Amino acid sequence: MKPDIDERYSRQVLFVGIGEAGQKALLSAQVAIVGCGATGSALASLLARAGVGTLRIIDRDYVEPSNLQRQILFDEADAAESLPKAIAACRKIASFNSQVVAEPHVSDLRPESVEQLLAGVQLILDGTDNFETRYLINDFAVKNSLPWIYVAAVGSYATTMNVIPGETACLSCIFPEGPRGS
């Protein structure tokens, strides 16, 4: 690793579960985050700080004042400008880790855009708030043998589900008649 990278990630490399090989893997990783609300913005911040090489942030929504108490990548200036969350998140990431390639996509994930928006990533993180999009992510991930993580937070509880095609059950496997219109 380069000297500036050595210093930035020096504490992380000491962690037995990561080491230098793990850090190099993180630096070359490509991750999509679908939804940049409370969960997605926290994930984006932590992954950028950890040195994940490319973050593709997909969200159609705009920063509003009501977001500021729980969505950690946004500030009052973003809300005053009504910036798209994907753009505001990528700007913040660039301000604290310019080595990360942060790709903003101001868009919904839809059947007609899923291939383009998720192509080339190694992991998909779901920070959305609707099952229609979750099933779309699931179908794409299973078809392309890509791992994805479902994360949801509602009120005072949260739930996660790791989907590794060919190894674990997928969302449709567990909920074949899920609330697709939700």
Please provide the count of β strands: 6
Task: Report the average pLDDT across residues.
Answer: 94
Strand content: 15-25%
Strand order of the main beta sheet, please? 3-2-1-4-5-6
Distance between the termini: 46 Å
Supply the helix-strand structural class: alpha/beta
**Percent of residues in helices:** 40-55%
Radius of gyration: 17 Å
* Succession of helices and strands: HHHEHEHHEHEHEEH
Largest sheet: 6 strands, mixed
Give the overall shape: globular
- Uncertain ranges: none
Q: Helical region count?
A: 9
TL;DR of this structure?
With 182 residues, the protein is an alpha/beta fold. Helices cover 41% and strands 18% of the residues.
Describe what this molecule looks like in 3D.
- By secondary structure, the chain is α/β, with parallel strands linked by helices.
- The protein contains 9 helices and 6 strands.
- The chain has a domain at 129-182.
- It is 41% helix and 18% strand.
- The model has no long low-confidence stretch (mean pLDDT 94).
Name some characteristics of this structure.
182 residues; 6-stranded mixed beta sheet; 18% strand; 6 strands; alpha/beta; globular
Blueprint of the fold:
Elements: H1 3-8, H2 10-14, H3 19-28, E1 30-34, H4 38-50, E2 54-58, H5 76-81, H6 85-96, E3 101-105, H7 114-118, E4 123-126, H8 131-143, E5 148-154, E6 157-163, H9 171-174
